[in-house]
Amino acid sequence: MDVNAAVAAVAAIAGVLTGVIAMLAFRWSEREQKRPTRSSLHTDAVLPPGVDTVLSVLRSSAVVLDEADAVVKASSAAYALGLVRGGKLAVEPMLQMARDTRRDGEIRQVELDLPRRGTGRGEALAVSARVAPLGSRLVLLLVEDLTEARRIEAVRRDFVANVSHELKTPVGALSLLSEAVMDASDDPEAVQRFAGRMQIEATRLTSLVQELIDLSRVQNDDPLEDAEPVRVDELVAEAVDRCRHQAGAKQITMAAGGTADLRVWGNRGQLAAALGNLVENAVNYSPARTRVGIAARSVNAPGGDHIEIAVTDQGIGISDKDKERIFERFYRVDPARSRATGGTGLGLAIVKHVAASHGGEVTVWSAEGQGSTFTLRLPEAGAARDRAHQQHAREIRAGGAGLDEEAGRATTPTSPESTAYETLPAPEVLP
Fold first, then answer.
1. DSSP secondary structure of 128-187
2. Residue 179 to residue 158: CA distance in whole angstroms
3. What is the torsional sign of CA 291, 292, 298, 300?
4. Going by DSSP bridges, is the β-strand pair 361-367/410-411 parallel, antiparallel, or unpaired?
5. Inter-residue contact 430 to 256 (CB < 8 Å)
6. Nearest of 54, 58, 112, 114 to residue 81 by alpha carbon
7. Hey, is 231 helix, strand or coil?
8. What stretches of 184-225 show up as alpha helix (H) in DSSP?
9. Distance between CA atoms of 105 and 308, rounded to whole angstroms?
């Protein structure tokens, strides 16, 4: 009995000691958690209340420097741009601005061109840096990336200059021809000749204005708002009818073939304009008594089935250096030939934008003296419709985010085997 009592007493004492030790350990743990760490002393205690939260939601890259030029706080974008390396501000002009601002308290702003990280091509990164004092000891640096804005501005500036030049040419010609008609009012043959030239220039001017309107429309409108299943056979027939007169004048044979009864999902008017531009270019750049082929087929792809519409000609071909730029606005492989055929240099740009806005792409294979094959690749009707509905649902959830134009691509295959007209079923020769 005494032994049992002794064991119980020892067990009770051991339990009390265990509880005391556990309580002491818990109190010590709480004290250690409340003790400020080196990082918290460096950031939380130095930054004014709420600044950390504000910097995290800014679109600009943010860097906070202390009195020793050490980085107290930096956003992830600042690291991505290469502004901060090894805990220091790596851009000397910005560092000097921060020192000057710390000295006199003035807000400074400057635009700089910085080298891109990881590229050896010397491409510049355009940024706007603004430095302001933050409290009595800190300096705030906000950096905004202006590279894309500058690129868009350059494209807009070049576009306006090109449009002005292209409009000036036919307008100037019409002015001179009208003066010639007035001077030759008593010569019926001269009046008729000059009137014919005026009609040509007026047609060219009308085509240029119409293509500018079409380009603006495909860039700004969402083609999937009024999308519908479109038969590829009907698009091909419409493109052939559009170019039948020009082809007949040059004795060019128009051939259509490929898989029948294919459908794509999109805006019928834009798709017809894109395919019509490809066929028209093929006819205009082909010698007399040659052949232009249009054929379509279905291709299996990881993201869903696609429809490929290939337009093949036996024309002059395109050099490698020109293939990189043919989808640019107003770019012409042969300016003299384009003016003779009435080309504006906007047709392929329209094709590229139509393909991109429909979730597809346009590719080209060409060899000088052997001809060219342009392939319009579009999602098939069922898969495209499902993706369009999913995209629309995502846009609603994201607050109506728009389609990114830069999703479109214009690529150059290394060989014609995947897109050439000859790999498709035998065509039907059209009169």
1. EEEEEEETTTEEEEEEEE-HHHHHHHHHHHHHHHHHHHHHHHHHHHHHHHHHHHHHTTT-
2. 32
3. positive
4. parallel
5. yes
6. 114
7. strand
8. 188-220
9. 63
What residue type is assigned to position 399 of the chain? G
Average pLDDT over residues 142-167: 79
**Do residues 250 and 286 touch, judged by C-beta distance below 8 A?**
yes
Position 375, amino acid: T
DSSP line for 377-429: EEEBHHHHHHHHHHHHHHHHHTTSPPPPGGG--EE--SSGGGT-GGGSPPPEE
Neighbours of 360 (CB within 10 A): 25
DSSP 70: B
* Strands of 281-408, DSSP E: 291-299, 306-313, 361-367, 371-379
- Range 201-222 average pLDDT: 76
- Count of H helices and E strands in the chain? 13, 16
Distance CA(106)–CA(223), nearest Å, equals 51
Best mean pLDDT range from 77-81, 146-150, 207-211, 361-365 = 361-365
First CA to last CA across the chain, in angstroms? 121
Two structure tokens written together for 404: 């990114």
- Give the pLDDT band of residue 406 (cuts 50, 70, 90): very low
Alpha carbon distance 215, 347 (integer Å): 9
What are 45's two structure tokens?
């205690």
- pTM for the predicted model, two decimal places: 0.53
* Backbone dihedral angles phi then psi of residue 294, each to the nearest 5 degrees: -125, 125
Q: Is 298 exposed, middle or buried (0-12, 13-18, 19+ CB in 10 A)?
A: middle
Residue 404 CB: number of other CB atoms within 10 A? 8
Identity of residue 105: G
Q: In this structure, are residues 223 and 270 in contact, taking their beta carbons and an 8 Å threshold? A: yes
Contacts of 316 (CB under 8 A, 6+ apart): 285, 287, 334, 368, 369
Integer-rounded Cα radius of gyration of the chain: 34
* String of DSSP letters for 91-102: -HHHHHHHHHHH
pLDDT at 37: 40
120 pLDDT band, cuts 50/70/90, is very low
Q: Are 240 and 279 in contact (CB under 8 A)?
A: yes
Cβ proximity of 207 and 344 under 8 Å: yes
CB 305 within 8 A of CB 299: yes
